[in-house]
Amino acid sequence: xxxxxxxxxxxxxxxxxxxxxxxxxxxxxxxxxxxxxxxxxxxxxxxxxxxxxxxxxxxxxxxxxxxxxxxxxxxxxxxxxxxxxxxxxxxxxxxxxxxxxxxxxxxxxxxxxxxxxxxxxxxxxxxxxxxxxxxxxxxxxxxxxxxxxxxxxxxxxxxxxxxxxxxxxxxxxxxxxxxxxxxxxxxxxxxxxxxxxxxxxxxxxxxxxxxxxxxxxxxxxxxxxxxxxxxxxxxxxxxxxxxxxxxxxxxxxxxxxxxxxxxxxxxxxxxxxxxxxxxxxxxxxxxxxxxxxxxxxxxxxxxxxxxxxxxxxxxxxxxxxxxxxxxxxxxxxxxxxxxxxxxxxxxxxxxxxxxxxxxxxxxxxxxxxxxxxxxxxxxxxxxxxxxxxxxxxxxxxxxxxxxxxxxxxxxxx
Length: 413
Prior knowledge:
By secondary structure, this protein is an alpha/beta fold. 47% of the residues lie in helices and 11% in strands. It has 15 helices and twelve strands. Strands 6-8-10-11-12 form a five-stranded parallel β-sheet. A three-stranded parallel β-sheet has the order 1-4-5. α9 links the parallel β11 (254-259) and β12 (301-304). The radius of gyration is 22 Å and the shape is globular.
């Protein structure tokens, strides 16, 4: 195997060890891209439309296939039930469509926040008819996941209240628990219920699943196949996300991630655009946990969830994936045996410098070598631009919108 002189010690055995660490990490690292990330998205204030944005599920899967073909690490696509499936649509047809584009359907996301009936919540709503509608939709999503051989059901509930005294917080908690328990009972033995949290928005006084502790408790109440889903944007600026990750790993309750970045709150920016060191620290906790468990990595679903509303959809996704690969590879370089010794000795500076050395290591040459060995483009973004895929998609989709009489707008994705 070709040795790269750009990284680490000049000793060939040391370079070989670095190479092996990075290659093992990259071989194991798989990321789901989100179907809605390929469509026109925006904020609650509006959208900025793109000619190349996906119109339908076929477009989304085609774009996801392009990303996977160029990066080699995105074999699955997370989908939203209301945005991606037509009423009465045969799931087998969706699976075949995904296969045709070189990908598989990944996490299934029920939608319990879009319909007008959810003005005052879904699972926590005071109206039993609305709770039943929300639960029925969730059970349908679980059944859909079974037919598509999808393991993860990703639950984000926008439930909450806007003003003090508006509702009984304890009563809402109980109603939420009851619905999650009911949903959990319908899971297949190999499925997981991933429960996401968010401190605020759209609820601005009390969100019903506002932090990782609430999600943890709801998951425990729901059943043994429930886990916590960490969205890296769903935290206050000062929160220590890697500490949350470490706690959830210790409790075997970390189910997955929604990766993005943020400057203020839930900005849904591309991963690493604001604080790549934070993402590195999160990945380090995951690698360190594996080291402490004899090299056995935790079973974690890595997913992207970002709203690149003014970046090219595909380019932004490739940019995030490549950044995630680099940061994951850097974190794999930390000498955890040495780190454990430094921590035992309370050698603060040495321990910190060990992490910083890994973070500032240039891993790009070895990632290019990994790509070469896997017959992938050495520079995925450059290869995408050279392929002409996006201008062709923009031309075809612009004409198709006009022919179909589609006015850009409507739902979030």
